[in-house]
Amino acid sequence: MSSLIPDDELVSRFAGHQLDHDSAAHYRGRLERRLLISRCRECATWHHPPMPVCPACWSSDVEPTEVAGTGTIYLAVFLHQGPPAPGVDYTTPYPVATVELDEQPGLRFTSTVVGAANDDIAIGRRVSLDWIDRAGAPLPVFRLDGAAR
Ligand code: ZN
Description:
By secondary structure, the chain is mostly beta strands. It contains two helices and eight strands, in the order H-H-E-E-E-E-E-E-E-E. The strands form two sheets. It has a five-stranded antiparallel beta sheet, with no helix packed on it. It has a three-stranded antiparallel beta sheet with strand order 2-1-3. A hairpin with a 2-residue loop joins strand 7 (126-134) and strand 8. The protein starts with 6 loop residues before the first helix and ends in a 5-residue tail after the last strand. The site of zinc ion has 8 residues, from loops. Zinc ion binds next to loops.
């Protein structure tokens, strides 16, 4: 992994996130705007969130691996209220989308969708990964395919 930053700096960059030994590599990837998902080197199964062993074969040889960032909206909810967070506007309301990544059926990553009206954010829509800055750190988000930037 390139550009290793100290653990304490990583934690401070992602204040409020659940950082631990298993997820540290994922968050280091975010600083480089790379979406790293754990993949087993024994059986090639992906899993998220990061765990110390592969859920398919129990191998501990799991490696954070960059995904393409393309996928399909599996679930979308719209938050009318929630904890105050920088860049989050609940009056719109705020979309939260779980995206099934193309790498593997059932491999899902949850974030928000930007650049789209809530009415257009629907289950089954194709999306692609993009990055925004939030609270001083890159945040992986999704944009609808075919939407204007
Ligand atoms: Zn495995």
